[in-house]
Amino acid sequence: MLSIVTAAKGRIEQTKEAFNSIWENAEDPANIEHYIVVDCKDHALKQLVTEYSNFYKSVGINIVATEVCHCNVPNGYENRNIHKEYWNPLAKSCSGDLVFGMPNDCIIETKGFDRIMLESFEEAKAKYKHDCFQVLIDDDCSRDSARPTGIKRLAENSNWSKGKLEFSQENIECNTEKEFCSWVILSRSAVNAIQGICADEYQFDSADRHIYDVFANTPIPAQIDLRDLVSTKHVSHWTGRAEIDEVHMSKPIKNEKCYTELAVIDKLKPYHYRVNYEIIRQVFDIDKEICSL
Description:
The chain is α/β, with parallel strands linked by helices. The chain has one domain (2-292): Spore Coat Polysaccharide Biosynthesis Protein SpsA, Chain A (Alpha-Beta Complex). The protein is built from twelve helices and nine strands. The chain has helices spanning 12-25, 43-58, 82-93, 113-128, 147-157, 164-174, 188-194, 207-216, 246-249, 256-260, 269-283, 286-292; strands at 2-7, 32-39, 62-68, 98-101, 106-108, 134-136, 184-187, 223-225, 232-234. Strands 3-2-1-4-7 form a five-stranded mixed beta sheet, sandwiched between helices. Strand 1, helix 1 (12-25) and strand 2 form a beta-alpha-beta unit. Helix 5 (147-157) runs antiparallel to helix 6 and helix 7 (188-194) crosses helix 11 (269-283). The longest helix is centred in the N-terminal third of the chain and has 16 residues, at 43-58. The radius of gyration is 19 Å and the shape is globular. The chain starts with a strand and ends with a helix. Mean pLDDT is 79; it is low at 160-177.
């Protein structure tokens, strides 16, 4: 089964297009489930998600919608942990063999994307003798001529207090490299090792690039490259296809602490090691070796 998980805010029309693209392109809808979380005060989106959920549940599709509430926590929304409170609970509670972290600005373009992803996963398991993988699909960065302009505009209008201009320049320089995927797609074993789709401790941007680095540096291959087979369109301010909106403006304000204390690599090593250990454990059947001692 393929689990799609979405932490959504605002973007009503983009959300409709994104969600519709799942079912317009799925080959086996019954083998897909969709878990969604929204903020309790995002009333327009909550209504849309409720309608969406009710419709697809009526035809036998598993849609699970939840919400996060910060109403009783002073400055709770501004200081929220996007992975710990939104994405990771979805990833841990769904049941799919693959978990696709799909934001509501991702439009799927490839017919049969679900079959391609699941079949490729089974082939990779057989080839590499483990099931701890990241799946890479095309997020259209290399096809997006407007992306540098969108990033520059975002930098000029950002309220982030440190590093934004430098960070934007880095993205501009790297945006055409076929190096990583903006969407995080992991196998169940990888989700279990990380305890989500990105460590709770990783409280700043470029989680997608960070996860790529984890799975690009494993002792045995752990990436399934489908970028020539599965295409998506990225509809956001990053790509220049949308204006800076409430999704960006509502992000926690970044400060120097984020780029010093929270970014210390030592805080992220433990789960990186867990991914490597899980792969080695399976490939070399460490459990069997231990039992034989």
